[in-house]
Amino acid sequence: MMVHGEIWTAKELFVYPNEYIYWSIQIVMYPFMTGLVAGAFVLSSLYHVFGIKQLKEMARFALVFSFALLFVAPLPIVLHLQHPFRGINVFMTPHFTSAIAAFGIVFFSYGAIVASELWFLYRKHFVEVALPLKEKQDKSVGEWLKFILFCTLTLGVYDISEEALRRDHKAIKVLAAIGIPVACFLHGYAGFIFGSVKANALWMTPLMPVIFIMSAIVSGIALCILTYTVTMEIRKFLAKRRMSPTQRFRSPEELKGVEVNVIRMTAKYLLFFMVFAISLELLDLIFRGYTAVKSWDVLRSVIYGRDFTDIFILQYAIGNLLPLILLLVPGLTIRRTLIATIFVLFGVFMMRWNVVIGGQAFSLTFAGYMHYHMPIIPTDWETFKEGLFGALSVFVLPFILFWVIAKIFPVFDLEESH
Amino acid sequence: MNRRDFLKNTARVIGGITLPLTAFKIINPRELLASTGDTEKVRWVFLVDTYKCVGCGMCVRACKLENEIPYDAKVTRTWVERYVITKDGKTHADSPMGARDGFTTSKIDLGIDGYEEIKNQDIDKGFFVPKLCNQCANPPCVQVCPVGATFQVPDGVVLVDRTWCIGCGYCIMACPYGVRFFHPVYHTAEKCTFCYHRITKGMKTACVDACPFGARQIGNLKDPNDPVTKVIMTERVGILKEEYGTKPQVYYLGLDREVK
To answer: So where are chain B's domains?
Structure first.
């Protein structure tokens, strides 16, 4: 009879009988996805709170994208649970000494902030869509549905006078400001889940939440640049095809100009947060080596030996150093930024991997190792959800959601004052 | 009412309500219990005499059958470890199948690396160490359970509610002793309970009963006449992984520094 974890765990030397890699790929995905949520939100707040004008276009995009990601963030945990349908128990009997118990509260308060900020941002748009439909006689079924949807979204508020919009603007600023610490908490707390496990020598460090927040912001910004650029490229492509410059489509040249500026500016912030993230991670590594407590022998053999490729080649060299060089060399082009962001995202993913899987690569005995073999071809539900395809599904879903949500919250060419 | 009046009145009402409320003291049930004295008459503890253990694995078999852990599943509530320390100062340790079938070969099980033959003349010392849940006084597994499905009974034993556990695995990660695992049938967190269903009815645990050499004993630390309590109080006993601050309640006689 197979035990949970046995199928993807290979034990080497002295490992306790019950030890397996219990936290697998979905637990790698969980901090990765929440990190993207938090990062995207912080990026959008840079404009709303600190008024960094160059990020205006990116800010709205990032906020909507953060909303799409938000729905996917709890999915990896649910997929990882042995009893997914009991996940609701966390809300029914939260046991607050546990770091996971607060998830519901943090998650929903964060969700409420993003949703209300979005509402204030798009209120004018809702009204502008709903009002003409209201007056229109003999609506088609589609228009009826659209009318009902947008009517509901206005929440019965149709006042879009200058005065009202100014108040909206204020509300957005306040919400974005509250949102930054909450977003950091949402993710820092994911770091706390790991950092507070005293039984795990690799995880236990008070730096963990801070490292997680920094890498979260890095990954969020990188993903926003990536998605933004790709969407812009698609729009340019469409603009070229429909040569008649209708009102919805600006000319390709105009789009290009907008794009380069936005991306260069965002890339600067990406660099800034990357430096923070890398410094913290290196500090952690150096500190462990210098203090060399009991667990250091086994940690050293994992970090500099077994996981060397994963940590130093894939995470630090390809995921950090390479994009750092790509972004720092003068004359930044869109293509170069795009490549750099893909490497950054990969690097952050590898960081999560090296924390979650790396933290289980050695035994509690400090005298044995465990190797993780991620299930590729699913043979049953468990190897699907805790395998390559489960992880890919989780990664792809926010993009599909974004596509749907962007139909209600248009991210481009919205004329308004915010 | 204008805003100023509204704020004034609000402040008055809040002040008026809170002032008398401060006269009440919120009493923490634990504080109350401490002030009236610890009324609990039982604290289950375990004593392992490693000098007596021969690694036969009778305890592991008994445990698996008693507690319905699938016999061939590679998880177990209790297990026995073998330590062989060679003259070159190296420690070799293993626990094949948790020593369910005892140690049938003198070769050391290295997992995916196969087996290691150790010559008799190279051995400095060798011994067996039975392991089970330490029923910690400060259990990290209870602390991290997000739904409170794992809890500590006042007599010290940590139990799991199979009907409420969501299977997140956080408790498994939090235990420094590796005693927890997912039950292959119920898919919930599983652990040694000191055979709670037996000890609360006056019986011994299955492993204690199965041990032919008396290497395992269970007792009540609150009873000064309990033979186990006497040993713990008068002899030199060790505990496992003290550095984690879990305050484990399984005591060992003849613990070696090489025990992991």
So the answer is: 3-36, 39-260
Distance CA B203, CA B209 (A): 9
Q: Any CB–CB contact under 8 A between B244 and chain A?
A: yes
* Same domain flag for A49 and A181: yes
Q: Which helix (H) or strand (E) holds B91?
A: strand B91-94
Q: In this structure, what token pair is assigned to residue B119?
A: 């010559």
Which structural domain, as residue segments, surrounds residue A256?
218-372
Is A10 among the domain residues? Answer: no
**DSSP structure class, residue A362:** B
pLDDT of residue A117: 92
* DSSP summary character for residue B181: E
User: What is the C-alpha separation between A185 and A313, in angstroms, rounded?
Assistant: 30
State whether residue B150 sits within 8 Å of chain A by CB: no
CA-based nearest residue to A79, from A390, A373, A379: A390
SS (H, E, C) A74-107: CHHHHHHCCCHHHHHHHHHCCCCCCCHHHHHHHH
Token couple for B189: 């967190």
CB A17 within 8 A of CB B74: yes
Please report, as a single letter, which amino acid is at residue A227. T
Contact yes or no for B165 and A86 at CB 8 A: yes
pLDDT at A231: 82
In a domain, A25, yes or no: no
Note the ipTM here: 0.88
Q: Residues in chain A with pLDDT < 50?
A: 245, 247, 415-418
Among A53-57, B21-25, B118-122, which range has the highest average pLDDT?
Answer: B118-122
* Number of domains comprising chain A: 2
Per-residue pLDDT at A249:
53
Please name the member of A17, A198, A367 whose beta carbon is closest to the beta carbon of B244. A198
Q: What is the pLDDT of residues B28-67, one digit of tens each?
A: 777 777 677 667 889 999 999 999 999 999 999 999 999 9
Interface of A with B in 66-125 (CB under 8 A): 77, 80-83, 86-87, 89-90, 92-95, 97-101, 103
Q: Are residues A181 and A243 in the same domain?
A: no
How far apart, in whole angstroms, are the C-alpha atoms of residue B154 and residue B141?
A: 16
What topology does CATH give the domain B39-260?
A: Alpha-Beta Plaits (3.30.70)
Residue B1 has pLDDT above 80, yes or no: no
Q: Chain B: residue nearest A80 by CA? A: B168
How many helices (H) and strands (E) are present in chain B, helices listed first?
8, 12
Q: At CA A316, angle to CA A181 and CA A280, rounded to 5? A: 40
- Going by the DSSP 8-state scheme, the letter that residue B122 receives in this structure is G
Looking at the fold, whether A318 and A270 belong to one and the same domain comes out as: yes
Instruction: State the number of CA atoms in the 13 A half-sphere of A212 facing the CB.
Output: 32
Calculate mean pLDDT across residues B142-166.
95
- Is A403 among the domain residues? yes
Mean pLDDT of B189-215: 96
For residue range A293-329, list pLDDT tens digits in order. 999 999 999 999 999 999 999 999 999 999 999 999 8
Whether residue A276 sits in one domain with residue A224: yes
**pLDDT score for A60:** 85
Residues A171 and A38 reside in one and the same domain: yes
Residue A55 sits in the same domain as residue A182? yes
Decide if B146 and A101 are in contact by the 8 Å CB cutoff. Answer: yes
- Give the per-residue pLDDT at A417: 41
Residues A240 and A365 in one domain: yes
Instruction: Identify the pLDDT of residue A331.
Output: 83
